[in-house]
Design brief:
By secondary structure, the protein is mainly beta. The protein is built from 2 helices and 14 strands, in the order ββββββββαββββββα. The protein has a 4-stranded mixed β-sheet. A 4-stranded mixed β-sheet has the order 4-12-13-7, with no helix packed on it. Strands 5-6-14-11 form a 4-stranded mixed β-sheet, with no helix packed on it.
Length: about 260
């Protein structure tokens, strides 16, 4: 079943449609950093392109867009991901990787491309579904870990297996042209937004790094060990890049019992 946005999972633990954030009181058509409460962490976008993280920053800044409760207009420059897909994309059959997605038009570096949308699950339901999979099944469950400066880790589980959007057809690459950023609009349940990591030509296949290491900080020792687990459990990677790791990323720590 197709859905352009996240939906509540079967367990009902998380409702991505719930509006819990207060809105800004900006009465202008487009919000500015010094006056908008949604931009208290700094500007998110510049001409529709995601603002790059400063190299000296230890942590990436969280991205909060203006929401349904905000008084600013729909044309506000801080409303990007919520507008949805803006480019013409095509699902096609690849030679070795099953289905894939390519763009039919040029995409500039930093532009939002699409969301990875599906059922937002709690840990228990995500774990149950993962345990029910066999080695022949395709896994679409993605787990995003956000490491806060306080030491806490926030986890988001999204499964587009039964309900999802075009994002479920994106393939992995060890040298991808997209990268994922959690973007929050109406609540703390993030949209898993994919942005262009470089200029992308028309006809080029779109891909991202399933492990999350691309465009990110170094991973922990625990996560590294999980990524290097028994290769018999892992599926081969056919991305064809110069730095191909030969296997698709697999992090068993994401589904280990507490």
């Amino acid at each position: 079943q197709y859905s352009p946005d996240n939906v509540a999972g079967a367990d009902g633990d998380n409702d991505p449609t719930e509006i819990t954030f207060p809105g800004c009181s900006c009465l202008t058509s487009s919000c500015v950093v010094d006056a908008c409460s949604c931009l208290c962490h700094g500007e998110n976008y510049n001409s529709l392109c995601l603002r790059p993280t400063d190299k000296e920053e230890e942590y990436a800044r969280p991205v909060f867009e203006c929401n349904a409760m905000c008084q600013c207009g729909e044309s506000c420059q801080n409303r990007v991901v919520q507008r949805g897909l803006q480019f013409r994309l095509e699902v096609f059959k690849t030679e070795k990787k099953g289905w894939g997605v390519r763009t039919l038009e040029f995409i500039a570096k930093g532009r939002f491309v699409c969301e990875y949308a599906g059922e937002v699950l709690g840990f228990d339901e995500a774990y149950r579904r993962m345990q029910a999979q066999t080695s022949k099944d395709s896994n679409y469950i993605i787990v995003v870990r956000e490491h806060l400066h306080s030491g806490q880790v926030m986890e988001t589980f999204v499964d587009p297996t039964y309900i999802g959007n075009i994002g479920r057809f994106l393939n992995h690459s060890c040298e991808p042209n997209l990268f994922m950023v959690p973007v929050r609009v109406d609540s703390m349940v993030p949209k898993l937004a994919l942005f262009a990591a470089a200029d992308i030509s028309a006809g080029e296949e779109l891909s991202y790094d399933y492990s999350g290491r691309f465009h990110n900080l170094s991973i922990t020792n625990r996560e590294q060990k999980s990524l290097e687990d028994d290769n018999s459990l892992r599926k081969p990677c056919y991305c064809g890049s110069r730095t191909c790791a030969s296997f698709l990323p697999w992090d068993s720590s994401l589904f280990s019992t507490p």
